[in-house]
Amino acid sequence: MTPRILDQSSKLKDVLYEIRGAALVEADRLEADGHRILKLNTGNPAIFGFEAPYQIVRDMIEAVPQAHGYSDSRGIMSARRAVVSRYEEVPGFPTFDPDDVYLGNGVSELITMTMQALLDTGDEVLIPAPDYPLWTAMTSLAGGTPVHYLCDNDAGWEPSLEDIRAKITDRTKAIVVINPNNPTGAVYSREVLQGIVEIAREHELLLLSDEIYDRILFDDAVHIPLATLAPDLLCLTFNGLSKTYRVAGYRSGWMVITGPKKHAEGFLQGIQLLASTRLCPNVPAQYAVQAALSGVQSIDALVAPGGRLHEQRDAAWLGLEAIRGVTCHKPAGALYAFPRLDPEVYEIHDDAKLVYDFLVAEHVLLVQGTGFNWPTPDHLRIVTLPEARVLTEAIERLGNFLVSYRQ
Fold first, then answer.
1. Is pTM, for the whole model, over 0.90?
2. 54-293 sits in which CATH class?
C-alpha cells in the first residue's frame, strides 16, 4: 500500500526565512565534514563571545526553584512592571500599565500573535523593503497580504513616504516600522517618523513598531520611539532582551500597547485569547527582565567609541567601502551592514546563488538581499558581531572572491 503523501500546508507557500535557508543547510553540511564556517547570517551574540550580563543569569538561577509552574498568560507581574518603568523614563512615551504589556517567547512569538489576531484573508499590511522577513512571513501565514514600501538607499535607507502613500488601499490595516532597522542599520529621523504617523492617522492604520535595537546606537544617532509621536493612535511597540542584553537564547521579549483602545476591543481580545492558548511565556526567562532593565546598562560601553560593537561596525563598513563597486550606508544602529553591489560592476542575476557560491569557495555564510524582500539582487546582509579582525578578513575574502566571480 502506497502511503498517503503528506505535503506542507499551502499556508506556507509565501512563508520564507532565508536567514536560516538553503545556504545554512550547506554550511551545516560543510561543518559536519570538518570545515570551519564563519556564520554571518544570524544576529546571535553568544556565538561570537558576548557573555550574558551576570545579574541576569544570577536572577534566573535564583528564580528557577519557583519558576516551574505556569504564570499569568501576559507574564509575571514583576517583569511587566519593569517594562512599564523602562518606558516611564522615555520622554513623551504614552502612559500605560502592566495589563498593557505582554511578555513573549521572543518578539517573534508576539509578532505571530499580533498578525493572527489582526488579519482576515486579504487584509494588507505595509512592511518595509528591505525588512526583517518574519514580519512578511507571519503576515502571509495569518492570511494577510504583505505590501512592501521601499526604503531609499540614497537617503540613508529612510522609508519613502511617497511610496507608502501610493500603496495604501481600502484593505490596508497596519504599517510596520523597524527602527533601528534590520538589515540596513538605519536609524530614522524624526521628520520621517512624523510623516509615517501622519499617514497612519489619515488612514486609521494600526502602528506596529519593532524597536528591538533601540539601545544599539552609534556615534550621534538618536532613537525616537514611534509611540512618542502617536499618543492618539493605537501603537504596539515590540522589544526584548535578545540583542541589547545578548541573551537571544532566553527568548524573552515584550509588547507594549499604547493609545486609544475602545475601537480595537475585538483585536485586543484576540491577542489575549492567543496569549491564553499558549498558556504563558517561558517562566524562568521572565525573571531575567527585571534584572536586565534595572541598574547599569552594559550595552552603553559596547556601542561607545572604542567599544567592541562600535569597532566592529567601523571595521565592516570600512572594509566594504574599500571593495571596488561596493558601497555601504554607514550603519547608525543595530548589528548589520547591508552593502550594495554595483550592477555595472557585478552582473549578479541570482543573489542566493552568489551567497551559496561564496560559502562554498570561502566558507563564509552571508544572506542575500532578496531574503529581506529587497526587490533586486544587488545587496547582501553581513552580521557585524565577530571581532573586528575577523570581520576585516572575511570582507577582504569577499572582495577577492568578487574580482573573478561571474554568473
1. yes
2. alpha beta
